[in-house]
Amino acid sequence: MIPEATPSPRVEQLVRSPGACWIDADSLDAWIDAPGDRVLFFSGDPVRFPEGLDVAVVLPQLQAVFAGRFTVGVVRRDGEEAIARRFGSQRWPALVFLRDGHYVTTLHGMHDWDVFVQRVAEALALPASRAPGIGVPLVAAQGAAPGCH
Length: 149
Prior knowledge:
This protein is an alpha/beta fold. It has helices spanning 9-16, 28-33, 51-65, 80-86, 113-125; strands spanning 20-23, 37-42, 70-75, 94-99, 102-108. The protein has a 5-stranded mixed sheet with strand order 1-3-2-4-5. α1 runs parallel beside α3 (51-65). The longest helix has 15 residues, at 51-65.
């Protein structure tokens, strides 16, 4: 577990903006289960992943483009690893899209503005799915013989 670090001023400003709040292990499930589209923001260590600070600045602008479409939850640094694993995310910064309590998709990294707008639009249009890395889908072939050969 990462010791709680003082959030950067950019991340603090994001959380003070309308439509954003802090998320930790205790608040995660209730926040996810609320209706509508939600985006979890994993900024990562600002020294190792400085683009996380850029995403923190751009995220309110993306919310403005998609007015009223999604709420942002900023994951506290000390809970990022465990919460990210829950959604199969292993890269920072990351935006995990959720809808009505279900995983939708994840966008990693910082992007040029037009690309970011396009990818967020695509994410908001996708149906809910299974988070990567959770379980192994089993598919049986018709007429397959028992055993592993």
